[in-house]
Design a protein that fits this description.
CATH superfamily of one domain: Nucleotide cyclase, GGDEF domain
CATH class of one domain: Alpha Beta
Strand content: 15-25%
Structural class: alpha/beta
Distance between the termini: 76 Å
Helix content: 40-55%
Radius of gyration: 25 Å
Number of strands: 14
Length: 622
């Protein structure tokens, strides 16, 4: 190996391996492969969120590196907790556990790969870990001993294969105390936290759209403050934001078409796991504004921006698109399409594939299939659904919801096999469920569920339908089913902010609060300029774990973004009250009444827990 082709460096290495992989494969090969793929996606997401990089993911092993041992250990803890949660949704004989080893050591880097004893020691430490556990080297422990609120158990100096000297090893515990080798015999101390929010979370979500704007019913660092709109760190994979295509048709009525084309390109790109794609809600905040792509790249945390324009006539369409590198401002790809309008589907596929090629992303056959959703060949049906979406996306209200329903029903009549039309129609019923309390609630939610199940029957890869169905199932108390559906949605579309957001909701319903916090925060990274309900929902989960400072921070973000967001005001009032900050609770209670002078605690209490009601009553609300 020529020294010019590699370099040495010190890095934190994490090696993870499946426990009993051969037995799992022998029992059910297909199920094991599906679970492994899903779990690796979760792990890769968490590695990205903790500033790490996946080096290799062959078979049942995943090797990654971090610049910081603290990041590596925090990531490993998050992985084990998240996989433990997900394993509860599987039969005992299908649960998949990983062992994780972490070492800080010298490695040789050649291209994207790393080699050497530093890597080998991490692998040997992984073998020493318990199933679902973490083992770190002495060199790693020395860097984290006083920096993380974790416990550690010294396992001694271990002789490991192909390593000349014994390796000091520590078991990482999930409780905040350091122990010695024989201290496992002592009974650990735990603090039980019971949340007053969980019993009422379902109803809070159900009534939320009465008072706030809902998003379309539709891991990289997540520490940046999206509201300050400052620079955000880039993910460790190709990242892109698709800005709303300009409508050059000279007719404002054609805005739905240019918006719809943009949304479809975002949807196609987001289904590719090798990409990181910013959500529609964030990119559409730039609509009609003169912005520089470098500015967009910094504010949304992406390397690439796609922008373009659309001019549509009665039967012709001209689309111009260009892909720009936000780091240096260089145009990587640009093309103009002049076709018959009926060729719009082919144009969308071409744009998507050429963008991916320009970003130098190599797709497997499965990835290529993901870029093309199962749609309709009927242009009239497609345009009907674009119009329906424009009614609910741009100004959701009762009248627009009724128009969207009519258009979706017409689309289904013209093409009964178009899955998207069923999802759009289901969305109108869910809107009714939230806003029209005079309609029979059970009947409304049952109709939405039926339509979503039809959509999934027509397109088993339709992530949005799985995600919406998951939320609908929680309204019937089918929480375990909802968790499986929500996880399925995320695995089908790992770039869907809404899918991660709804998974966060579902995990909160099932009291899996650490998981819900993780999903909400990743949804916000995918949607860096999120709607207020993303923010106060995250605050709600923090409050449920009695992390009141974090809970208040995120509710304040929601209020800063949407000062008249009533649910954010209600939640922060209750949180202040429960945290003993009575003066601030009373101030926020007055804000609740400013936004909704007819707010009635008596009426609210019929759908909320006594503890939440008492917290609000203590603030002065009646």
């Amino acid at each position: 190996m020529d020294s010019d082709e590699f370099r040495r460096k010190i890095t934190a290495i994490m090696s993870a391996d499946v426990v009993g992989y051969s037995k799992l494969m022998g029992d059910n090969e297909a199920a094991t492969v599906r679970t492994l793929e899903a779990y690796k996606n979760v792990m890769a997401t968490l590695i990205g969120q903790h500033h790490g990089r996946v080096i290799d993911s062959t078979g049942d092993n995943m090797l990654s590196e971090f610049a910081s041992v603290v990041d590596a250990v925090q990531c490993a803890v998050a992985i084990q907790k998240e996989l433990k949660t997900r394993n509860t949704e599987l039969p005992d004989n299908r649960a998949m556990q990983f062992r994780i080893g972490i070492n800080l050591g010298d490695v040789i880097q050649e291209g994207d790969r790393i080699y050497g004893d530093g890597v080998n020691i991490a692998a040997r430490l992984e073998a020493l870990a318990d199933p679902g556990g973490i083992c770190v080297s002495k060199t790693a422990f020395d860097h984290i001993e006083t920096k993380l609120p974790l416990g550690y158990e010294f396992l001694g100096e271990k002789e490991v294969k192909n390593i000349a000297k014994p390796v000091g090893a520590y078991r990482v515990l999930m409780e905040p105390r350091v122990v010695i080798a024989d201290a496992r015999k002592k009974k650990p101390v735990f603090w039980a936290r019971k949340s007053f929010f969980i019993p009422v979370f379902a109803i809070i979500v159900a009534i939320a759209v009465l008072v706030i704007r809902q998003p379309e019913l539709n891991q990289p660092s997540i520490e940046s403050d999206s509201l300050k709109r400052g620079p955000i760190d880039l993910p460790d994979k190709p990242s892109i934001a698709v800005l709303p295509f300009d409508n050059l048709s000279g007719d404002p009525e054609q805005e739905y078409f240019s918006d719809g084309l943009t949304e479809d390109i975002i949807a196609a790109l987001s289904r590719v796991p090798k990409l990181f794609v910013i959500a529609r809600n964030s990119t559409f905040t730039y609509k009609g504004k003169p912005v520089k792509v470098q500015q967009v790249g910094k504010e949304l945390g992406v390397k690439y921006v796609l922008e373009g324009s659309v001019k549509k006539s009665s039967d012709k369409v001209r689309i111009t698109a260009q892909l720009v590198d936000t780091i240096n401002g260089h145009h990587l790809w640009a093309k103009q399409y002049e076709r018959n309008l009926e060729d719009i589907f082919a144009i969308q596929d071409e744009i998507t594939k050429e963008i991916i090629t320009a970003m130098q992303v190599k797709l497997t056959e499965g990835d290529q299939a993901r870029t093309t959703a199962k749609g309709t060949e009927n242009l009239e049906v497609y345009l009907l659904i674009l119009r329906a979406n424009s009614y609910n996306n741009n100004n959701p209200n009762i009248e627009n919801n009724a128009m969207a329903r009519k258009l979706a029903q017409k689309a289904i009549a013209l093409d009964p096999k178009y899955a998207v039309a069923y999802q759009v129609l289901a969305r109108t019923h869910l809107y009714d469920f939230w806003t029209n309390l005079n309609k029979p609630q059970e009947q409304t939610i049952a109709e939405a569920i039926r339509l979503l199940e039809d959509a999934i029957y027509l397109d088993s890869s339709y992530a949005e339908a799985y995600s919406m169905l998951a939320w609908a199932c929680t309204q019937k108390g089918e929480n375990e089913k909802a968790v499986k559906l929500a996880n399925k949605a995320v695995s089908l579309n790992p770039n869907s902010a809404e899918a991660h957001y709804r998974l966060g909701k579902v995990l909160t319903f099932t009291n899996k609060l650490e998981g819900s916090i993780l999903e909400y925060r990743y949804a916000i990274r995918l949607n860096p300029i999120p709607p207020g309900n993303y923010l106060w929902s995250l605050g709600l989960s923090y409050a449920a774990t009695q992390q009141y400072d974090e809970a208040i921070k995120w509710c304040e973000k929601a209020i800063q973004q949407e000062p008249d967001n009533l649910m954010a005001r209600v939640m922060i009032t209750a949180i202040y009250s429960r945290a003993g900050q009575d003066d601030k609770a009373r101030v926020e209670a007055q804000e609740v009444l400013r936004i909704n002078p007819s707010f009635s605690l008596d009426r609210f209490s019929k759908r909320a827990s006594p503890i939440l009601t008492e917290a609000l009553r203590k603030s002065g609300l009646k």
